[in-house]
Amino acid sequence: MDLVNVDARRVRFETIAPAVIDAVRRYLARRTDPATADDVLSETLLICWRRLDEMPAEHLPWAYGVARWCLANADRGRRRQARLTARIAVLDPPPEAVAGPGPDDDDLRAALAAMRPEDAELLRLWAWEDLSPAQIAVVLGISANAATIRLHRARQRLRKLIEGAGHEESTEGSRP
């Protein structure tokens, strides 16, 4: 295609496009949600550009036909995706989420807040995200050995903090 034909083609499309855009946008707005309408409008305009030489003089009905086809294609895609998601959920259900400490876990919450942020994050990765020390090492960018050692130490610190918070030792009755 030479430069003159490309310019003529562009001018023709720019002349037709405003009427097509407004009419097809209204057409789609009455038939689908706004996000799908925007996607289908874009697809319709792309096809109109690609097939501009095939577009008849009565361009609006032709553009409606293209938009109708694109909308049907988008609907089929959405249905396929829903079926696939349902199949995956049956074959490989998502693991149940493990919640963080609840309102009755005030000692744990207080102990984690009292710890160094690095130790608290390490423990959260281990307990709540169910990661192994090797996986924690990847997350934190450290060696697996370092993660194992840090996890061991963090668990000891947490244990001491929880035991200290929940069971204050009484000095009553002890010998001086």
From TrEMBL:
The keyword Lipid metabolism does not apply. Residues 107-158 form the RNA polymerase sigma factor 70 region 4 type domain. Keywords: Sigma factor, Transcription, Transcription regulation. Belongs to the sigma-70 factor family. ECF subfamily. This is RNA polymerase sigma factor 70 region 4 type 2 domain-containing protein. It comes from Actinoplanes ianthinogenes.
